[in-house]
Amino acid sequence: MRSLLIVAGKEFRDGLRNRWVLAITLVFGLLAIGLAYFGAAASGQVGFTQVSTTIVSLSSLAVFLIPLIALMLAYDSIVGEDEQGTLLLLLTYPMSRVEILVGKFLGHAAILGVSTLVGFGVAGAIIAALGSVEQLGELVAALALFILSAMLLGWAFIGFAYLISVSVAEKSKAAGIALVVWFLFVIVFDLALLGVLVGTGGQVSEGLFHYLLLLNPTDIFRIVNLTFFEAARTQAGLASIGANAGLHPALLIGALLAWVVIPLGLALWVFRRREI
Amino acid sequence: MTQPVIEMYAVGKRFGKLTVLDEVSLTLAEGEVLGLMGHNGAGKSTSMKLILGLIRPTRGEIKVFGHDPGGTEANDMRLRLGYLPENVQFYEQLSGFEVLDYFARLKRIGTSVVAPLLERVGLTHAMHRRVKTYSKGMRQRLGLAQALIGEPRLILLDEPTVGLDPMATRDFYGMVDELRAKGVSVILCSHVLPGVERHIDRAAILGQGRMLASGSIDELRQAADLPLLVRLRTTRTRESLAESLHPYGVQVAMLGKERAELEVPVGAKMAVLRSLMDDPEVVDLDLEPPTLESLYAYFDATLETRRESKTFSAATRNTPQEVSA
Question: Mind listing the UniProt keywords for this protein, alphabetically (chain A) (predicted)?
């Protein structure tokens, strides 16, 4: 247990030192403030817009960005240490493979978690202070849900990154596969579903369709943040179908959590069998 | 007699169809320094990994400190063990101090041991610099400091002197001698280690996964029965030397003017030396027992002979996916 925390602590400090934490925090913060301020520019006005519009546009951008950042952050976690020879060394230390992997995962999860919390949190505070927010309660609740789901989405993709990292022997290969995974989940999945929907002339049962959306963590993230704002449904693209479904937010968060646990569990399973 | 630190009985390891280790037996006593030699793919690294408990043998039995290294008591064993892998690149963005601190804490030892260890390997001046700026030799010394964390009772060093300059190599062997004096068991793993003879108690020579020879240097010399080289400065001619030393089975060659080289069978050593000492025409002489390198070359050549006598299939030899050393 202590080894696990030592590994996690080192990973997190590495993240601070090589400016990952700073960079991600800045990107998230500027994105949120920028969208809040210029979000209504298309309709001819500049200035802080409605909270609902901000969160909806934020979630549709974050859904591209967060998985990419998470994959970039962690794709070389295991295979990188393997290439430089330190993995072999760590395995001769008095700790299990589970402790190494989970420790590193916790470190990476903390990097992304802290960046998400600080980046969007500070942005939210600035919006609340400078904009004329009528319902502060709504902003806080919406932002809290957004941050929570953004963290889970990030961790899910860190889980994917680990699964990739334990499965390949070269760093470059891991990077390539990470890119493909991003592409599949963020773009191809939705296009394929849309294709099915159009191709069958909408014959797919609505209930089935909702559950199909649960097969993609990025769609769950979208639905979570859309359902919060009934009014915003028109801007939401494919996931708005899910928003109708009345899937309970707790269920959605649970599903996201499952998307964190399952890839990580698989990564553990593969890692324990990995030949050194 | 205390319990051996390492015991390997008829250990075999296969990866798929490829046999990387076959019937290897080995023991290492407390305070003993073993040189483990062989080409790339001879099975050195596999042996190391088996001893470290990173992989399990397909056949045979291994015990380290009396326990299965891959078993439940492995963590206890790992606290008493130091390992320097080949070609390890430590975390470049950390300083030498931070790297060592990380590993010391993982070995459940406080930060207090870090500075003395760095001093011991002569890195005190650079300990707060990033590893990225270190030379190959400095990295190797950092790796060695890492292997010494927690005063282990067994140390495995894979290619420890690669990249070290002659002075650093000498310092390194000095450290090995110190460890041996403290009763630490050491395995030095290498292709060839010039000048290592004086620092090891025994050598084990691996070839294509088999133990070709093992024993003390003297035992290996006896087994190989390689001649002793004697270099002379003498005014005598090759013919007259050859004639007088013929009864002992000595081969004579001239290296230059008034310089001869004799190949003396080990058994005839004293008789030949006596006869040379009594010879007023012999001005100077130099003795060179067979080096570990020549012994290694000899035993490695026996592998060829064995292969020709079809002990090994051609497939094992020519496979491109040799498990790296």
Answer: Membrane, Transmembrane, Transmembrane helix
